[in-house]
Structure formats: C-alpha cells, structure tokens
C-alpha cells in the first residue's frame, strides 16, 4: 500500500543523511529552553512558564537534562529564601472512584478563592505499545482564558502505579509559582506511597460501597493517608455509611488525625470546602522545611540508585551510610546538588 | 395460510431527513419533497438547535444551518411548518436533548394553524442515552435528562395520544461500531431504563399505553439477511419485555414499531455511485419480511460521504423507495421468511447473544450506569471492524478491493456533486434572533423562564412550563440555559481509555510505525504527543476515537478531550499539554469556519505544532484548508488508520526538523 506522503522520515528510516533529519538532529543538539530563565519566571509567579517547564523536564536529551539541573537550582529553597510557597497535594485512588470529577470541582473551588492551581495528571501507559491515552483532561472543566489554572497530563512511562520521572521535578518547580500543585495518580496500595514521596499532603479517594479501601487499611496494605475522601455523597446513606466505617477503622488503628471527608462532584456539589479546609489543616500541622528536606534527600538517594544501581550504593557503604552522607548538607539543598554530593563521594572512593 | 394477501399492503411511510440554512428555505424543501410523493416529514435540526444554543453563542460558530435547520423560537417553527397542515402531517423530529422544547414549539405552531395538540401525530427522537454513547448532542447530565424524557412520555400519552414521544435508537449504535448483537442488546437495555423511569411517573394502569407508544429507530447495514433477522429478534424480545417486565397484554401495545434510516457508515467516498446499490440492499433488509417490516423508511443519499446532499440526490433516494413499494410485487405477499430455516437459525443466534449481553449491561447497573461499559465496547467493536477492513478480511468494494475506476461523472460539476450552505446564513440567523428578542414581550419571557426554573428545581412535570415558555417567545438557548443552570453541565465518557491494548494480530505496518515513533521521539527528546480534538458542536466522535486509540497503539501519548470544544479551549490544551501535533475531526461541514479559527488560536498562543484534519471534507476544501495552515487533510477515502499514523509521524518529524533549521 502506498504511503500517504513521501516523507523524509519514511525515506530514510536509518539515518541522518536527509536534510530534514539533519535539521531534526540539529534540533536535538540545539539549546532547549533555558532552565535558569524558566526558574526566574516561576519565581516571579509567572504560570505561563509552566508549559515550557513541563516540556523541559520531560525532555530526555542530555542538553535538556543539564537545563533541568539549572531549573531546579533556580527554584531551590536557597534561591527562594525558604521553601516554595505552593502546597503540593497528591490525590490518588482506584479507577472509577470519581477522581477526575473531584479534581474538576476542587480546581473550581480553589479558583473561586483566588488560588492559582497547577494539576499534573499522571496516567498509566500501555506497556505493550508504550503509548498512552491521557483522558483525564476531558473531565476537568477549565476556562481556557484563566491564567491561574494549568493542567498537564503525563504518561507514567511504564512505571507500574508510578509517578512519571519528570513529575517530581515539575511539581517542585511549579510550587514556586502557584498556590497549589496537585498531582493525580491512579491506584490503591502502592500509588499513595509513591506520591507521598513527592507531595506535602496525600488524599486518597474511595467510592462508597467498594469496601476495598477499608480492607486495605485494616490489612495495612494501604498507607494511612492524610485525608480520606469518600466520593458520590449524592448516593446518600451508602456514602455516609462508608464514611462512618472508614472513620471507625482509622480510630481502631489509632489514627485520629486523618480526616474523612464526604463529597459530591455532581450537582448539587458538596463537601469541596470541607476538603479544601482539611488539606489546609494538614498542611498547617506540618514542619514543612524538615519534611521537604527529608523527602529531597530520599529523592536524591533514589535518583542515585537509579543511575548507578546497587553497585553504586555499595561503593558508598550501603543505603544507610549513603543517607548519612547527606545529613551534613544544607537543609535547602536541591535534589541535583544532593545527587552530586553522592556521586562525588562515590568517585572519591 | 395463503401465499397471497387478500389485499395489497399499504406501503410504509416514506421520509427524507432534510433541513438546512433557514426555516423558510427548509419549508420550501419540505413542500417540494411532499409534492414528489414523500408521505411524512423528517426534520433535521442544526447542531446549535440540537444542543440548546442560540445562533449567537460562541459554540454555534460555523454550525448554524449546516447539518439542519436552526429553530430558535415559535416564529421559526411556524415558518418551518408554514402551509403544511399539521392535523394530517406526520412529522418526525431528530431532536434529543431539546426534544421537550421542540415539541412545545410544534404544539404552539399547530395552535397558530388552529390545530389542537390532541390531533398531532409524529415522533420526537428523544433518546438521550445514545447521545451519551454515540451521537454527542446531549445537554444535561444523565439523571435530569432521563427525567425530561419521562416527563415527555407521561405528558404525550395523556395529551397527544398519537405522538411517539421517544424513538429508541439503535441506529447510531451501529454507526458507532455496534455488532447486531450489541445493537439489539443496548437498544433494549436503553428501553428498559426509559420505561423504568416512566413507571415512576405514571399510574400503573397506563403502562400498557406507555409501552405501546415506544418506538425504535434502527439501522440497516449491507449484510441485509442478517439485518432482517435482527429486526425479527428485536420484535420477539420486545414482546417478551412487555409481557414479563411491564405486565402488558394488549397485542397492539406489544408490537415492535420501528422506523429506519439505512446505514451511512458503509457509504464510501471513492466510487460513490456504488452507494446506490448499498442503499437498495439495506432497504430490503427492513422491508422484505412482512412480520418485521419498518413503519417508516428514510434513505440516505448516494453522496453522504462527500458532503451535504442536494434536493436531486434526495429525490433519487425517495424514488428507490417508491419503485420498491409501487412497482415491485413485495407488498402482495404475507411474510416470505415464515418457516425459513436460515432465518429462524439467525434469529435464534441473535436472541441468545443479545440476552447474554443484556445481562451484562444489567450487571453494570442498567443502561444509564452502564454507559461507560457500553461506550468502551462500541469503541472496541468499531476498532475491530476497521482492523478487518485494513487487513482486507472485510471487503468494501472500491475501498480495499476493486479500486480501479473511471472518473465518476456524478462528481464532475463545480461543487463536486454536493450542496454547500451559504456562509451568510449564520449572520442572518444572528440578526433575526436579535430582532425577535427586541420585538417580543420581555417580561412575559422572563416570567415564563422563572416558572421553568421552578419546575426544574421541583419534581413536577416540566412540559407545561416548557410550553408556556414557547408561547411567551423564549428562545432555544434560553430554555436550555435555564435547565443547564438547574441541572449542571455534563461531559460524557469518551470510551477510548478503556479500549483494549492492541489490535488483534498487530500488523507489520503497525510495528513499522511504532519503530518510527520511537525513533522520532528519541530524536526530539520526548515521546510524540498528539492532541485529538473535535471543535464545534459535532458530536460524531467515532472517527476521533479511532484515531486516538490507533495513535496510542502506535506508541504516541494521546490527549483526547472529547467533543464540543471551542478553538480557544483546543489551543489552551495544546499549549499546556506541550503536544507535537494537533489532530482535528469534523463531520458537520463546518470545517471551513472552524479549522482556521483553531489554527489562529494556536498561533496566537505561540503554539507552532502542526495541525492535521480529518472528516467529511470535500475535495474542493482541501487546498483552502492547507492555505489556512493545515499540514495534512484526511478524507473518508483515507480508511487505513495506520497509514494516517505514519503520515502524522512524518508531519511531526518534518515540523521539528524545520523548526530547528529556522532557529
């Protein structure tokens, strides 16, 4: 069958000899957006930099990765004179629990209160084709002319239940520019653990009548979230019962701080203000600088291990010894700087 | 039983789905169609009217008067029906989300002719579930939509006894890819959801009458023997349902009544004259056997895959019906399949399959709660069908076999053998609307809309308040907005997320494109990301969904946002998502207005990603679109999705190469 177009890409499947492909390679070698400049824009609260920031952190070329290091430096606590002001929130739950509709209403609620919001929706990818259908955007209502809302869908990149590798860097960078960064992931059991490594507060979404969350909590399969959200409050009694059961289960586990909130994302919408308040209460209880410092150190260890493997860690004397190497570093040090420290030690030995 | 009827049967009702530009022009078309021997009307409304927007709404841009007639208020309906006696005419309206409103306008128009509403006969399509599943002209969320439907049924059964308040549509399910089993099962499940809803709103003893007023609108494909069996199976299931679930016993109430529009999905752009024989065969599927014969038939025109048909094209289709009904001997015999082993066997097969699938829908909580499940199943079936066409397993003459052809004389005129709607129609409609608003009694309208809001907020039947608003002179957009305010907005599931991972027996062609996607993605640093969007009000999302799924299957990251997007929304999404290419799908004929708008909105935001377009795009429009900045245009003759994907990857590669060279 004839191709629809005599494309340069089709004609030269192997190499860079054609002019078009040569140019494309030049594009690869050419400079990506400047991380320092993007960082400056974010520091100034300019959310219009967000698309370019995401394009940069997702870019796997060497040149782009160098710029990402500069970006992270530009929005690090040291550069900001303290932790980034944005509240980084993770929302996770099983498919069909009503996360997207919930997000839509949450964004609306925050915007009504004049808070700027960046949503990073992480979708599972097909491991067979490596492609993915990023469908959540379709269910989040937004005003295209609103400069205070940014929504980006990202493929998980084949990591089961996991976070797209670029999501952490993006979330921390955007926290310099917006009031709320919201990361949405799919799953129960592991997803909230992964997302917890990146965010300040974790909300797990469950639908009434599913029972899974209750069982997972009791069995200890699911980490206790900071906020538990029961959706579909419009179902009335079923939702209220689910809320009671979950609250009882949490009490029996001795977890008295986790708030359980019932919401309805369909008209009449309710519970959104309660949810926003619950997230704020949680944030206020945190020692944010200490928590983010610890999470950055953990991230740096994970990044080092991903790059250099078990062998790399052994060179440093094992994970615990490696962790101790970071304790002396400044609290506000950014992840690339911490990775650098580890690599420096490894190199020296 | 004699092999002859004592008396020749009366033919079915003959209609042509028609309407365009303005109420006045459509009225002239209706009158000329009736003069040619058409026996009923079938009104096609434009998309703003179907989705509840006035001509001056942002979303109406490019769509006014395109796929049907705009009807904004009682004055338009009066003009549309001018000189057509509504006490004898049987009018079918393809209207769903705004069905209650259009019926109200029709009632008021009849009053103007001195005709009581009790004398009216006709049909409002009014099947909202299939709008969520396949056609996309919904306006309100499922629960209040079902309430509106139930209100209309409860109202018409008492006040307009010869009205068919709902036409449960399996038609669009087949267009969306349904197999015969799915078509039967989903239509029946849909009917159950509707009837259960009405049962709560009418006295128990009226259920027989309600059941008797439910009619179906089915599709007939070119596999016409099986299609006939499908209708026999539906008749059996319907009777069973009436007796067992709703306690209906009157045989008159238990008969399956259906109208039909034969299949458009199988009509082809290449060698379009072949569509005539397809249409003939499909018509036979719904007329051959007397026991399951259609009550009303409308045939598409041979050139539907090319664009909007002209009056002559529609006349040709009407004449096909007339030759069968009046020249052939078909209507002289009783059922010709009685006792046929083949027919009985096919019916039994379909019944078994449909019953099993109905049980699955029931497990998903019925047709309303099961929309996601049914939608995903349809996307999957459609993908499977396209895969078989691509592989050549399913032969489509002129598409994947016997493609050698002489130039068709039918498409040699300057317009390419189709009708184009004058661009001025939209502004005329906007001006007329302004004039209407200025002249009417504004206080009466405000009072009527207040009453409508109160009815919507409460639990009473909404028809009275709707008719009052129609009389007062409210507009389609105002009626809908009042209900949107009360009920909220809604976005239906897209079905693509749930579709399975890869085409059964992934082909070498797909593998090759996957390789290319990997190579180009590596080169540009990120996986190729495509935004698939449907600008405007066109809800026919089947094509866009298949593109989205195939793009995923060849390894791209796909942002699919569903239907009904403004150019500004598409541009914002493309920017925020950082996509490498934007793919737009339009089937409503509004591409000349909307596509350049989208391109402009993208460039205004600094998004340089190339734009590709697919849909029912006449050949003559391809070059103007390219001049407007479109990188590639895919028309119905580009049936091979994998080839389209290969082309899109090439577009992305070229754009990135060129962009870097310029920098």
From TrEMBL, chain B:
UniProt-recorded name of the protein: Ethylmalonyl-CoA mutase, methylsuccinyl-CoA-forming
Lineage of producing organism: Bacteria, Bacillati, Actinomycetota, Thermoleophilia, Solirubrobacterales
Highest taxon of the lineage: Bacteria
Cofactor field: adenosylcob(III)alamin
B12-binding domain boundaries: 527-655
Keywords for the protein's UniProt record, in alphabetical order: Cobalamin, Cobalt, Isomerase, Metal-binding
Gene Ontology terms, MF aspect: cobalamin binding; metal ion binding; methylmalonyl-CoA mutase activity
Assigned protein family: Belongs to the methylmalonyl-CoA mutase family.
Subunit relationships: Heterodimer of an alpha and a beta chain.
InterPro entries, A to Z: Acid_CoA_mut_C, Cbl-dep_enz_cat, Cobalamin-bd, Cobalamin-bd_sf, MeMalonylCoA_mutase_a/b_cat, MMCoA_mutase_a_cat
